[in-house]
Design a protein that fits this description.
Mean pLDDT: 93
CATH class: Alpha Beta
Order of helices and strands: HEEHEEEHH
CATH superfamily: DNA repair protein Rad52/59/22
CATH architecture: 2-Layer Sandwich
Strand content: 25-35%
Strand order of the largest sheet: 3-4-5
Largest sheet: 3 strands, antiparallel
């Protein structure tokens, strides 16, 4: 049996995400953005690439204090897929609500992971505006 190429694996991850719709989709109540729930992307990546064949590193996290609206957590991550030289970085953000800084940092990091994986076209239906809450 021939090993799958990374291109084939990326298509498989996107198939898993498509097959999980609409249960794996969420809409941000603040921005209105519709995207895949982070755990579904992580699960699909682990199922296709195996644990250790892909990953991410948090490069930076910061808190931006805002006077007129909720403060913001920002996170920058780097993702990698084993055997691929291209290692994209992306920023993510999450509003701090009810004083929960930890949850906002986690939200910013998962947002950054999803954005960085999009450079490999993973989860691209979200970035093409093709996700709907109902099939």
């Amino acid at each position: 049996m021939t090993a799958k190429t990374n291109k084939e694996k990326i298509k498989e991850v996107n198939r898993i995400l498509l097959n999980g719709e609409p249960g794996n989709i969420s809409q941000d109540s603040y921005s209105g953005y519709t995207g895949y729930k982070p755990q579904y992307i992580v699960d699909a990546m682990n199922a296709v690439f195996d644990i250790g064949e892909w990953g991410f590193v948090e490069a930076e996290t910061q808190i931006i204090e805002e006077k007129e609206k909720p403060s913001l957590a920002l996170s920058r991550v780097t993702v990698r897929i084993k055997g691929v030289e291209f290692v994209p970085q992306a920023w993510g953000q999450s509003r701090i609500t009810r004083g929960d800084v930890g949850d906002a940092k986690k939200g910013a990091m998962t947002d950054a992971i999803k954005k960085a994986l999009s450079y490999y076209s993973i989860g691209n239906r979200a970035y093409h505006g093709l996700l709907k809450g109902d099939k």
